Amino acid sequence: MIRQDSAPAGRGGVAVTDRPKLAVLLAGPRGFCAGVDRAILIVERAIERYGAPVYVRHEIVHNRIVVERLEAKGAVFVDELDEVPDGVPVIFSAHGVPKAVPAEAERRKLFYLDATCPLVSKVHAEAEHHHDENREIILIGHAGHPEVVGTMGQLPDGSVLLVENTAQAETVAPRDARHLAYITQTTLSVDDTAAIVAVLKRRFPAIAAPRKEDICYATTNRQAAVKAVAAQVDAILVVGAPNSSNSMRLVEVARHAGCGRAALVQHAREIDWAFLDGVRRLGITAGASAPEDLVQGIIEACRERFDVSVEHVTLAEENVRFNLPRALAG
After folding, report:
1. Close Cβ partners of 111 (under 8 Å, ≥ 6 residues apart)
2. Which structural domains are found in the chain, ordered by start?
3. In this predicted model, what pLDDT tens digit does every residue of 222-269 receive, in sequence order?
4. Which residues have a catalytic role annotated?
5. How far apart are CA 312 and CA 133, in angstroms?
6. CA–CA dist 263, 69 (Å, integer)
7. Residue numbers in the chain where pLDDT is lower than 50
8. The predicted structure's pLDDT at residue 2
9. SS3 annotation, the chain
10. Which of 26, 30, 122, 202 is most buried, by CB atoms within 10 Å?
11. Is the whole model's pTM more than 0.85, yes or no?
12. How many C-beta neighbours within 10 Å does residue 83 have?
């Protein structure tokens, strides 16, 4: 679906005509997904219900601006539980945590809320199921990413083999290829993951696959929208954070889809305007942890330099909602 917004008039109602024209193609879906919405709301509701401070282990989502806004409301972000004092609530981030983390919270009798995205929890459940069926597990993901750390931490050490690319898929050596399964991080490149899976299936024909795709609906939809826009524009800006896997994948997908001039920006003030020299059609999207007001801020910054028109290129409508933990419901 494509919708076009007319350019606003200049000051005094006179149309702006002395600036270069810039058509902005706004990809949709973009920005917050249901898991991010839920995680942020958990922090906000916890502050309202229990009062500040509320502690959060790791960034609740990978976006520094979101984190700073929650800090202003009374959230305190820490790296590990040993930084959390006794007697205050603590929240686990949307990326999920190893089982050792809630176990330690229970040992210390800390009240905790788990903001793990339900789609990440689904992957955790898959991992446990395969382990119970005596299958060794290959996890496709990025080493060190909190979601990968959390997923591998659901099982005893040595139960999961991490594969990051096709080269590793060609050399990974499971103990028994007849008892093998794969799972994936939820925020990967759909195309890159498919290539890795193809290698694993060729090498290990009996490998068990997820019953339903592990890469989440939001990641899939945003990548599809970027592909659709990439073929129509001179450049693409992805709004997101450099530690956000899904945001970085959008930059990669844009480049692979034919738009070599693709860049990540966290905020309008980070735009390198030389990057847009000669650009007449600009694609804009946002990672799943980037607020929509940052997107609108970039469009407004463009309006200060260009005569901007906006086209909405929307491939899907999202209506997914996840429930809050029982302690915060109602």
Report:
1. 89, 90
2. 2-32+217-314 (3.40.1010.20), 34-114 (3.40.50.11270), 118-214 (3.40.1010.20)
3. 999 999 999 999 999 999 999 999 999 999 999 999 999 999 999 999
4. 147
5. 47
6. 24
7. 7, 9-14
8. 56
9. CEEEECCCECHHHCECCCCCEEEEEEEECCCCCHHHHHHHHHHHHHHHHHCCCEEEECCCCCCHHHHHHHHHHCEEEECCHHHCCCCCCEEECCCCCCCHHHHHHHHCCCCEEECCCHHHHHHHHHHHHHHHCCCEEEEECCCCCHHHHHHHCCCCCCCEEEECCHHHHHHCCCCCCCCEEEEECCCCCHHHHHHHHHHHHHHCCCCECCCCCCCCHHHHHHHHHHHHHHCCCCEEEEECCCCCHHHHHHHHHHHHCCCCCEEEECCHHHCCHHHHCCCCEEEEEECCCCCHHHHHHHHHHHHCCCEEEEEEEECCCCCCCCCCCHHHCC
10. 30
11. yes
12. 12
In this structure, what token pair is assigned to residue 181?
Answer: 């399964």
